[in-house]
Each structure stands twice: as C-alpha cells, then as structure tokens.
C-alpha cells in the first residue's frame, strides 16, 4: 500500500465524461489498496472564462484588484473538486473535497502569484485514515488574514507537489496530456524519445527553457522536499493495468540516486525557446556598478531578463548583452535608449528580435568537457552562426537566428544520440 | 447618512452590463453619503449550470452528497462578489468582497438548506469604517467544522436580511425584477396595485402562498429582528434620483407601527397558487392519533403538505383532507392507498389535482368579521364553488376548481377595492 497524490490538468477535467474517467482511474488505485489524494485543475477554459468576465468589466486590467481576481479565479478549482467527489461517490468510492482554505494551504499575501508557506495535513490524514479519497483544490490557498490567494498559472502542479511533501506521499503523479518528458519537442524532431527518468535539476533547466510540462515552481518544490514526481498521460484507458501505469511516463529523480547508475546519458534533452530577443549595449565603460545601472531600470519597468552576458573588456569598455521575451523587446529598447544609454555612457544600443535560444541540458555534462565542442561543431557543420553563448553547470545555451531553430534542434538531437536509449558515455 | 444593505438578484447580476449598472447604483448611494453592504446572487442561470454539471455526472441525484453540491453551488456567488468589487473599483469606488466563510456567516450543518446561526460583523464594520463598500456572497455560510453550506434556493434574500440585522442596518433594500408587492398578480388582474407598505405578517402569508418575491425565511428574519426591508426594482435607471428610489417599491413594516395608521386597509392582497392537488380520506374512524398515522408516512415520503383540514366528526368517523403540490399528487395517492388507507381504516381515498388555492390576506381582517362573508358572497355570485376553506388570523384560503382561478382572483380584487388606494374601513 502506498500513499500517492494524483494531479489532473484542465484538459483531463474538461468534460463530464473526462471527470468520470478520472474517477475510474482514482477508484482503480483505491481498489488496489492505495491511499489517494487528488488535486484537479479547473475544467479547461474555465479560468479564462472567469478572468474574461473581470476583464470585460474593467478593460484597463492594470488597475484591477488582484485580491478580487483571486476571489473569482479560485472558484474554477472549487467546482472541479466537488464534481470529482460526486463522480467518485457515484461509483461507490468514498470521497471528500476541500478548498485550499479548508485544509488550510497557507500562503503569503502575494495575490495571483502567492507562495505556499505551510500545509496542515491533519484533516487530509483523518479522511485518508477513514478510507476516503481526499480531493483538494489546486492553484490556491489562504493568507494569514483569511483572504483567498492563487499561485499563478500552472499553480496546481505546485499544489500537488507541496501536498505530497506535506503528507509525505510515496509519489506524486502528474497526469497530463503528454506521456512524459522528451529529449526534445516531438513536433520538431520526429524521433524524439521519452525519458524514463530525468533529474530534477535537468527538469528545472528544461522547464525554465520552455518545456512547459510542469510549472517551474513545482519542480523546485519537488527538489527541495525530495518528492518523487512522475509525469504521465491522462489520455490512456483509465482501466489499464495499474502496474503498467505506475511505471509509465517520466520519473523525476534526484541526482544522488542517478549518479549511481552507469547508464547515465551525458545530455538528456535539447530545449529551446522561440520567443527571445537580444539587446546589446556597445562599448560601455567597464566601471564597478555598471551592470546594476543597466538592469536596475529594466527590472523597475517589470521586464524579465533571461540570459545576461558580459565579456572581458577591451580598452576599458565592454559590450553588455541580455535577452528578453520578444513581447517586451520594444519596451526594453525604449528604456535603454531613454534611461540607460546616456547614464552609463554606452556608445550604442543594438537589438534583434529575430533570435531564439537552443540549449543542451544534462546532469552528465558536468564531467564531460566535450559537450560544448560537439555542440558548436554540430552547429557549425549545419551552417548555423552562434550569436551568444551562456552556460550553467548542466546546460549550454546558444542564441541563434530564429529561422535556424528547427534545424539546430534536429542536428543536436542527432549528434547527441538522443534518439537512442540511454548509453554509457558517448562524447 | 444611513447604513443600508442592498441585495441584487440573479437577473440584476446577469451580464457584464448589468453588473456595471449595479455598481453605478451602489456608487450613487456611496456618493450620497451612505454606507453600503451589497449581497448579490449568482449570475442568472449560473447555479443551474453548476448543479446541472453535477447531475450529468450522477444521474441518480438522490445519492448525491449535499456537501459536495454546496461546494459547487456556492461558487456562483463568489464569482459575483468578485466581479462587482471590480466593477465598483473601475468607477473609483473602494470595495472589497467576502465569501460567507470569510465574514464568517455561521450556519448549522444542514447542507442545501442551512440556517444562519450567527454573523460576525467585525470585518464588515472595519471595512465600512474605512470607507469601503462591502460585498458579501448571498446564499451561503460555513458550519462549525469549516464546511461550506448553502441556504437553499432564494437564500440570498435571507443572507441580506440577516446581515442587515447583524450590522443593525437602517434598511435592507431588496432590488429585484418587480417593482414591489402587488395586491395580486398583475398578469391576472390588470389594475392590481402596488402596495407602498405591507406588514411582515402579511408578507409572510403572501410569500408562502406563492408571491415568490422574497424567500419566506427572509421575511421571518425581517420580522424576528425587525429589519426594515424594502422590495424595489433593479430595472430602473441606476442614476435615477436617489430620494425617489429610496421611497419606491414596497416597504415591509411591523404591525405595531401599522396599527397607528388610520389608513389601514382590511385586505392587502389576493394571493393564489395554481399547483395544488387535494386528497381526502373518507370516513376515517375519529380516534386519537389518527392525524399522525396519516401524515407520518406522507412526511416520511418527503411530500410537503400545505393545507390540512379536518371537520367535526359524524357517527364516529370524519373526513380528513390535505393539499400537496401537484407534482407530488401521484406519489401521495400511492402512499395513501398502500400504506395509510388500511392502517387507519378509511373507507375511501379520493383526490383531485385540478384545483387551486386563492387567499385573501390582510392584517386588518382580524377585527373585521365581514371579510369572510364578503369573500364567500363574491365567489358565490361569480358561480365559483368552494371545495375547502382554511383560515389563519390574517388570511382566508379557499380551494376551488382550477379553471376558475383567474375569475375568482379578479372578482375578489374588485370586491375588496384593492385597485383603490388605501382606505378607511370598507367592509
């Protein structure tokens, strides 16, 4: 008997029939002797419908109270938990639903992007011990003053992992509309391969690079509290063999467990992000504090910065580059021209919003200096010019012209043998 | 400056534009110097949509958990309060919304028909004192264990009146899609007249007789806590003169205030109910306990009984009659035939589902014995046969063949001079 948390996304909860499928699947786990806590999202489209009503009332979304937005948006999940409880009861499985505030899932007061501070497991445990399935709203909690808060888009993943941590679940199963984590996007590379395992550090790099399977904070939580988390498909037959299901998808594991495996691949996947734009301040006097003088005003304008690159200075000046989301390119260029260029004494501001980022990610690359050279060699052979390079311990990212993105991803996927099963050293 | 509660029904909250109208109206009251608490219903159709989802999941509604139904249904009002807060903020009026559990509005644990036990006014008062409009969900509360409960259909009226009582509001204004309480249904009698005032006892009789303007429990609350309650139209221009608006509709007052008025009419209105069915057990042995033996099994079958009539016995037997909703006629007849007839030794069970009930209601009739005779005379002249009669202190009800209903209502309305303004003694 295991204690597991199941999380189901909006698509899995998208209709009466799908909710009944989820109930069948959960009931199967209960019949197999497991204790199950379920964290469902709002029915697909519901959160958008609710926030759309608010936006119709106040076209100027900027001055809309985030507290009231959370009051409204949180109802989508509350409906889901009630419906799923009814679906389970209808097939003879005892179940009870809770809104975040009833558990309670306590968060800070940052409406629309709250962070979970604590989860009381008393009520959940009592119901589990009484033989019930416990269904808890994802995406939301309650602050110290009793106000409803939400965790931001995709927050139900974080709720599920956090609840799994609080009740010390054996595993957190994230049921979604893909059947696992792939070596790269199968829409770009046909023979992209599903990974049976991935470390949470790799997942973190891949999530932040746009793999979009899991909300990044849920991965951080999984790492921090060492929650064994599995991403698997909710589109399979709910009555499929439970052991097959329990071993499907991709398991997110921990590095210390992984390094014991001889079959560790050097690179786990090729991630990419289409929506980049790069900006460079040319010939900035290389004096202390200049980086802050540049990025301070950018942050103040609420522009998120992704990569930051500054190279060795020449003749007392340096070129300072960073990338932003393409949607914020114009705004960023304006801030640089009006507020920063003169203040830091840069010669010129140049930018390009026709770029993308491609990254090779893998916990195994730490001890393999050859990864970078194979990556650069592959791109060179494919005729792709590298505009910027940035590296972390387990990833190498390059900025290239966006029209070469698919080509670069395909060639790298091939070069790192990612279409083959895991291997012993390849580079 | 007054402290008022505004209640808006589902139709008034039925679209983005209507919610903006409600905001305009509330803002007008605030600008005029009043403190306002608003209790809005769910957007029209929303509660049905939500409960419809639950019914689609479990066709057999009988074994559906009422706790989960409340979890689902209560979200409709939560969305409304958030949207109204945003609408008020958009026009520069400070506002904050609360779900029932946040106030808290404490109820007993009777899901789907909970009763309010207490309302904490601290949070509401603090916000009012800070110059905010406070918006509280109608229809719902929270039990001692922190479960969400709902008050049953129309419960938002009760929420509004209860909150008005808790904060000692000067008046509770129920904005609805009719412009007040009428002497009878204007669709039946063209010159039905709006009453400027009605006592809460009269309103009670009229509500239970099907006037349907206010949930009956809200009227009980208004009476018990002496909440001055006004029923008025939400379909007027939201920017209409506030003094005109504040004196429009129908004010529900208290008898002791009313009796000081010389202009008290004997009869305030003619109420009616189309959906009646009558059942009679013929020649029941007149022994102690027989009424319970009959109504016990009926109640056990969850059939609501309206009128109950038992006349003087003749030769040791009596005829026992009662009326039920027409929808429950067949079920009631079955229970009587199979479980009751033999057990009480009745000779025969006869029934008729082609009847209706017409009532004359008025606090003034207590001291006017002539009311009954004028009523019976009027019906006789109109050729309407009276099948059953039942009276309370302030009403006389008759059961008649349903095809005569409109005729009876029109003739009685005329006979009691209800199309005239209030008068000094007429009978």
From TrEMBL, chains A, B:
- Per UniProt, the enzyme's principal EC class comes to transferase
- Please list the residue ranges annotated as the ACT domain: 279-363
Keyword terms, alphabetized: Amino-acid biosynthesis, ATP-binding, Kinase, Lysine biosynthesis, Nucleotide-binding, Transferase
**Catalyzed chemical reaction(s):** L-aspartate + ATP = 4-phospho-L-aspartate + ADP
Binding residues for ATP, per the UniProt record? 7-10, 176-177, 182, 187
- Give the EC number: 2.7.2.4
Claim: Kinase is one of the keywords in the record: yes
Q: Where, in this chain's numbering, is substrate bound? A: 47, 77
One GO biological-process annotation of the entry reads: threonine biosynthetic process
This entry's Gene Ontology molecular function terms read:
aspartate kinase activity; ATP binding
Which pathway is it part of? Amino-acid biosynthesis; L-lysine biosynthesis via DAP pathway; (S)-tetrahydrodipicolinate from L-aspartate: step 1/4; Amino-acid biosynthesis; L-threonine biosynthesis; L-threonine from L-aspartate: step 1/5; Amino-acid biosynthesis; L-methionine biosynthesis via de novo pathway; L-homoserine from L-aspartate: step 1/3
A single GO CC term, please? cytosol
Family per similarity comment: Belongs to the aspartokinase family.
UniProt protein name:
Aspartokinase
From the broadest rank down, the organism's phylogenetic lineage runs: Bacteria, Pseudomonadati, Pseudomonadota, Betaproteobacteria, Burkholderiales
């Amino acid at each position: 008997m295991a204690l597991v948390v199941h999380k189901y996304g909006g698509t899995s909860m998208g209709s009466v029939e799908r909710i009944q499928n989820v109930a069948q699947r959960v009931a199967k786990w209960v019949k197999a002797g497991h204790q199950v806590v379920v964290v469902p999202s709002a029915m697909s489209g519901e959160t958008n419908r609710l926030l759309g009503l608010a936006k119709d009332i106040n076209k100027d979304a900027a001055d809309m109270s985030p507290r009231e937005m959370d009051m409204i948006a949180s109802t989508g999940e509350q409906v889901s938990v009630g419906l799923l409880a009814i679906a389970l009861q209808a097939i003879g499985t005892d179940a009870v639903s809770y809104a975040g505030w009833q558990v309670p899932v306590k968060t800070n007061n940052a409406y629309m992007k709250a962070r979970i501070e604590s989860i009381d497991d008393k009520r959940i445990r009592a119901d589990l011990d009484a033989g019930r399935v416990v269904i808890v709203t994802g995406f939301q909690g309650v602050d110290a003053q009793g106000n409803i808060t939400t965790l931001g888009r995709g927050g139900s993943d974080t709720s599920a992992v956090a609840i799994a941590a609080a009740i010390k679940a054996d595993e957190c199963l994230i049921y979604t509309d893909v059947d696992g984590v792939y070596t790269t996007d199968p829409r770009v590379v046909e023979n992209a391969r599903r990974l049976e395992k991935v470390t949470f550090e790799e997942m973190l790099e891949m999530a932040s690079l746009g793999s979009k399977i899991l909300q990044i904070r849920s991965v951080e939580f999984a790492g921090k509290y060492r929650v064994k988390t599995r991403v698997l498909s909710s589109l399979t037959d709910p009555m499929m063999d439970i052991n097959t299901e329990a071993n499907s998808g991709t398991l997110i594991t921990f590095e210390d467990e992984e390094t014991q495996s001889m079959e560790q691949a050097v690179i786990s996947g090729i991630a990419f992000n289409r929506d980049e734009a790069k900006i460079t301040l040319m010939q900035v006097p290389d004096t202390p504090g200049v980086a802050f003088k540049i990025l301070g005003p950018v942050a103040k304008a609420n522009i998120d910065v992704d990569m930051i690159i500054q190279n060795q200075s020449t003749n007392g000046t340096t070129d300072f580059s960073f990338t932003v989301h393409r949607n914020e390119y114009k705004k960023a260029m304006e801030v640089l021209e009006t507020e920063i260029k003169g203040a830091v004494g840069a010669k010129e501001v140049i930018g390009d919003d026709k770029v993308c980022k491609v990254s090779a990610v893998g916990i195994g690359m730490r001890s393999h200096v050859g990864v970078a050279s194979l990556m650069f060699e592959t791109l060179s052979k494919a005729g792709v010019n590298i505009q910027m390079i940035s590296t972390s311990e387990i990833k190498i990212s390059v900025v290239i012209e966006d029209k070469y993105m698919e080509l670069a991803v395909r060639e790298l996927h091939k070069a790192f043998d990612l279409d083959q099963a895991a291997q012993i050293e390849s580079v």
